[in-house]
Design goal:
The structure is a homodimer of 767-residue chains. With 767 residues, chain A is α+β, with helices and mostly antiparallel strands. The first copy, chain A, is built from 19 helices and 38 strands. Chain A folds into four domains: 294 residues, Beta-galactosidase, Chain A, domain 5 (Distorted Sandwich); 92 residues, Glutathione S-transferase Yfyf (Class Pi), Chain A, domain 2 (Up-down Bundle); 101 residues, alpha-1,2-mannosidases domains (Glycosyl hydrolase family fold, Up-down Bundle), CATH 1.20.1610.10; 202 residues, GH92 mannosidase fold, CATH 3.30.2080. In chain A, strand 31 and strand 32 form a beta hairpin.
Chain lengths: 767, 767
């Protein structure tokens, strides 16, 4: 279902209130729907099935994400919203975009009419709680705005959000019991350990809760200002109203415990609107109030939305694209999704909660949190090098602060708020930092960064890195997922080596370069696949190369997917096969193989044979053809994947968006190139899917990609010009792009098998 | 058992290390034990039975109180230590002095030898946990110092404490498994909701826990620096060692959860000492580290103890007394107990956790917490007006800050850390503030204070104050403990009126004076006792005047005790009886009545008939004889009570010391006068129990009290001179004392029934 078809009359009515000058023309023509770049964002993309995106209101990289939750228990609905659901639990203030594990969903607001419920009620019986049914025809979502009319109680809920503060606008029917309830006890899937709520005055409340979830301890404070004084209110603790008990005093205005709710009651006229301004903080309710005051206190709903739309326009306008509305919706929503995470994680006064729960000022940088690094080092941070260099530097500064605060002296692995989850494998903060360093991104201290990188890569405690450094591989008798870890450590070590070299640390360069070759130790020449070895060097027996085995030698995949994970030494990998021909033969079979061993793996989709685009280990694989003399296969698969696994529908994403990685993959591929090996400075050339894309880089430098003759059939490169020169290499370097220029493709219906044969592997390590 | 008899050889040996110049003489003479005033403090007084004091190390009004816990569940052992117990659970960092309800006991340190336990073990089987037996002969306690040798593992533990930081010194036997364990999961009686521990380096750890106890949410952070690097350490979560699990990384250096322990292991030589320096904070572990660094980081154990002893000397030397060693131990330990609470509650950088969990800087004052106001308004804060005027002003500033942060706009009732417990009744912050104001104590804003006082006294929600203000009494059908509340509100309102008058607010003066007469509405002329009335004015039926009924019309007492609670209008009360004679007849029977209705009340002792000195409602009663022509009865009861219910033994206190109130009662009574009505400026004269006491007031003004001929028989006043004048009134005003002077008693074995007959009630309200 598209965004367009979901737009009903109320949307236009309401939008008209904010954009009066254009409202009269909104109905006029389809084209007029897209007045600004921001109009191409459809937050409903990726909300159905595997994408795990949310449809709610958020500013670019915003700390607050106000969005409806339809499901709070299923692992598969990590964002809290599934387009397939028909009832909404509540509207909570924080959400992940595209993660594979649920968390957040903090501080639930819900409008009710009549006697309020303080339990949510199950999906199969919304009437037994505050849950309420809705229909997609009454729902609308755009960048910074979400609205739905709840079918059961006829309340329209609208959300908008700034950086740390947002608004919920409730349009009630006429009733003497219009309720806005807040449930402090719930979040997405996990345990609320403690919560606190205080009524500050007749229209202001504050509180916090602490959640033990995916993040071990996560504090969310909030302050909410209601536009109208409460007619009546109540604080509920364990289902009981906090009130005078005729024995000794018990405040009706505050409570703390595991199971707290608040409700405000109003008498409303037909269509009366009550607006709640709300802000969050990880520090205190007073900091939340400061965030609210500094951001939105004097503003109306429309003003906040307008400001957030302007922010989105500014971010999205860093790229100009030509294409159909559908293509632009796909493209700009992908860019929108890429620009949500990592999130801002500091208050207006620069204070943030550190990894050790101490409060720190972010001095000289902006602090970000939520680093899904196993995913985002691949394409998201490389995209940030192009379009968000300043933010990327601050993300690196945030990671270095994390390192400083880490009890284990480790850069983040999968950090979440002020927590390390240790989710996934490797030390992929390293490629993020090295990639930015190699590209000359300013704004962080390279020496300090290198120290953190090296200390992390030398950690004697972390996941058998020490054994790996001695033995040359991670042995499966000592460590799970040993093959994936060996391979990913190797790539990360390549990155350390690049930075060491650049800093003149030859000894380190040699050491980490040596470690980066570890993949060779796990290449089994009997199966021509990567295979586990134990600490004595014995191969894994029996070896199920196609089988996804939880806790086996591979991470969320099989040997068939991981065998290609040598992004930093593709030539070395090809050589192990005895050259490009046997290499590509083996690679071909990845896409055609149909073994049913892993059919039961429900959460990774987007399958082309055993190439699983729905998860990250596959993301670079199609580009290996570039280096084995068959770039047309890269070109073909780019188009196949984008046609089948991206689009502008709620179910268009084939896998978890993973904090923007799936979307960032699209953004690069749409341009016709991809950062196969972050930390090096080359991009491998694929095949453009849009006719024209212009990157507006820093310092007003434009890099324009054009694709002449491109259409659904003409997906093959006939020729390329780069900055005016004929270009026959299936890769080019960042230097060609960074000062602006033009990459011109001429496309055709059949491969030009002569193009792209010019590969000099020695160039790949160079700037 | 006295402190003296409990001092064994190790005490002298260890003390010798700190005070080498005097050690050689320590054995010489008994008198030489008392080199300094601080030597008269015996922290074991009040640790056996009802007193609920603790024996551990603490500085004056200190934030940290390092003390052994022998019991963590019984309501009756609220300080965690009972002298009757024979095993110690652990040494924790925080303790209440004398409360009736347990809480605190945070962050337990325990030395162990061999394989460490992570459960405490029950009293009847210490060997099944880290609990360890001890003997009082191996125990010693002095101001700022506590030491015990544990019988089971032969480890000597010594504690000392500064303001926010202290030390634990462990003297181990030779062992390859000397353990110092920390249990984060426990506290005195209540639930640890969450805890966190982090190993910062090879000798430093930090963490926090949050306890839901008497205080609804109480955060205690700590940082601990060990004098020797750990040979080995471990963090335990739910009984499992946090360690690498061969799957994915799990830090061995940190954890968070409900059930955390830490242990450090050492190999020790015979008598090897390991010192742990530790500090606490309510803000963060970093603030705890700052507290540690600013207070004790460069100091040795002996230096910290010396500094704390000097602080105690400075505080205790505000009074000079003459008497036997036993009398001086009794006196100075009472003064010590009075100078423990309220506690400092802010970090070295002035930051404290507010009532709303926001962090605030104490600007222009020092923030204190733990206000046991129902107790301490009676004698403790009046004592502070004399001996701690600056601190008392800051306590008032702390209460005003509490008021500012209160969701209910109420001054503290029974505040605990950053919590209001609503324990007990009334609004007795009012007499504390008014008493200080009336005595001209500087350092707080009177206008701001008055606004807080009046707002508190006019609160429409609090405990039927509004009904009381309309009806003239708190009706028992609307509110429990209605008679006690009516009477105490009346006294508090008298105080409001006094301050209103002084500020020229005549209307307020009249209004609150009117309210203060409410006691008359509950005086039942059929029984000549205070008696409950319902909202229609009907008397309570049946009326059990002698029976302690939980949740009845009286607070921790009976009508017989509460009938006398009109401290602000003693004449009015006497008049209700028709004059002094029937009044004193009724009062006499209080002390002789032996009804067994309340024999089952276990926690209030110190009974003389139905006068229960072990609880506060009785504390002013014996002074009523002064105003009814029989001051010799006051004199007699002062001596009876002090002889039987005070002393220098662990079991010398007949009731909970209640944050110093029981001890402050002693301090005043020992001098021969008592503040019957705080908020007025008079003291009623009792009978001195020490031959000479000199108060060293501010500005080097001394007020000396002498008692000629005083001995065990000569307890009756024969004559009095005040500042050189013959004094026949059984009361005098603060003005007579504040500039220094002398109060000279001549004592004899029989009452001089002519003395003290000169009462002018109109003088009692005046300065």
């Amino acid at each position: 279902m598209s965004k367009i078809s979901s737009l009903g009359f109320p949307y236009f009515f309401l939008m008209a209130l904010f954009f009066l000058p254009v409202c009269c023309r909104l109905h006029a023509q389809e084209a007029n729907k897209y007045k600004e770049t921001v109009d191409f964002v459809n937050p409903l993309i990726g909300t159905f099935g595997e994408g795990n995106c949310y449809p709610g209101a958020v500013a670019p990289f915003g700390m607050i994400q106000i969005s409806p939750d339809t499901e709070d228990n299923l692992w598969e609905t990590a964002s809290g919203y599934d387009y397939g659901d028909s009832s909404i639990i509540a509207f909570s203030l924080t959400h992940f975009s595209g993660t594979g594990i649920p968390d957040l969903g903090d501080i639930r607001f819900m409008p009710q009419v009549g006697k309020p419920w303080f339990v949510q009620g199950p999906k199969n019986n919304p009437d037994s709680g505050y849950r309420a049914r809705f229909s997609h025809k009454d729902e609308m979502a755009s960048a910074g705005y979400y609205s739905v009319k709840l079918s059961d109680n006829h309340v329209r809920v609208e959300c908008t959000a700034g950086d740390r503060a947002g608004m919920l606008r409730f349009t009630f029917p006429a009733t003497d019991s219009a309720i806005i309830s807040i449930d402090m006890s719930k979040n997405l899937r996990w345990n609320t350990i403690w919560s606190n709520i205080r009524v500050i005055n007749d229209s202001t409340i504050c509180g916090y809760h602490m959640v033990n979830g995916w993040a071990r301890e996560r504090y969310v404070y909030f302050t909410a200002v209601f536009s109208k004084p409460f007619l009546d209110f109540g604080v509920m603790n364990d289902g009981k109203l906090m009130t005078y008990n005729t024995y000794r005093f018990r405040s009706a205005k505050e409570s703390a415990g595991k199971n707290l709710q608040f409700f405000a009651r109003y008498s409303t006229q037909t269509d009366e609107q009550i607006v709640v301004k709300v802000a969050i903080s990880a520090i205190s309710s007073e900091s939340a109030a400061s965030n609210l005051n500094s951001e939105i206190i004097g503003l109306g709903f429309g003003q906040v939305l307008k400001s957030t739309r302007e922010k989105w326009n500014a971010e999205l306008n860093k790229v100009s694209v030509e294409g159909t509305s559908e293509e632009k919706e796909t493209y700009y929503t992908a860019l929108y999704h890429a620009f949500l995470t990592p999130m801002l994680y500091q208050d207006a006064d620069m204070t943030y909660r550190g990894l050790d729960n101490n409060f720190r000022k972010a001095v000289g940088f902006t602090n970000y949190a939520v680093f899904s690094l196993w995913d985002t080092y691949r394409a998201t941070h490389p995209l940030f090098c192009l379009l968000q260099p300043a933010r990327n530097a601050d993300m690196i500064n945030s990671m270095l602060a994390h390192y400083d605060q880490s009890a284990d002296h480790l850069l983040p692995v999968w950090s979440l708020s002020s927590n390390e989850t240790w989710c996934m494998i490797g030390y992929h903060a390293v490629p993020v930092i090295v990639d930015a360093y190699m590209k000359g991104i300013k704004g962080f201290d390279a020496q300090r960064a290198y120290e953190a990188i090296k200390t992390t890569a030398m950690n004697a405690d972390y996941d058998n890195v020490k054994t790996y450094s001695i033995l040359g591989w991670v042995p499966f008798d000592k460590e799970n997922e040993s093959v994936s870890k060996t391979l990913e450590y190797g790539f990360d070590d390549f990155c350390v080596a690049q930075m060491a070299k650049s800093l003149g640390k030859t000894e380190d360069y040699n050491y980490f370069t040596h470690r980066s070759k570890a993949y060779k130790n796990l290449f089994d020449t009997t199966t021509m696949l990567m295979r586990g070895r134990d600490s004595k060097g014995h191969w894994r027996e029996p070896f199920h190369s196609h089988e996804y085995i939880q806790g086996g030698d591979f991470t969320e995949g099989t040997s068939w997917q991981y065998t290609w994970y040598v992004p930093h030494d593709v030539k070395g990998l090809i050589d192990l096969y005895g050259g490009p021909k046997p290499f590509t033969q083996k690679l071909d079979s990845l896409f055609t193989f149909n073994d049913n061993s892993s059919d039961n793996v429900s959460d990774i989709q987007g399958r082309l044979g055993e190439y699983w685009h729905g998860n990250e280990p596959s993301h670079h694989i199609i580009y290996l053809y570039d280096f084995a003399g068959q770039p047309w296969k890269t070109q073909q698969y780019v188009h196949t994947i984008i046609k089948t696994q991206y689009g502008n529908k709620p179910n268009s994403l084939s896998g978890n968006d993973d904090c923007g990685q799936m979307s960032s993959w699209y953004i690069f591929n749409a341009m016709g190139f991809y950062p196969v090996c972050p930390g090096s400075n080359y991009y491998a050339i694929g095949s453009p899917v849009l006719k024209s894309i212009t990157l507006h880089l820093a310092d007003q430098k434009d890099f324009k990609i054009t694709a002449a003759n491109l259409n659904d059939e003409n997906i093959y490169i006939q020729s390329v010009k780069l900055n005016g020169r004929e270009w026959n290499k299936p890769y080019f370097h960042y230097d060609e792009l960074k000062n602006g220029g033009e990459l011109s493709f001429v496309m055709g219906p059949k491969p030009n098998k002569k193009w792209g044969q010019n590969v000099d592997f020695s160039e790949l390590d160079q700037k």
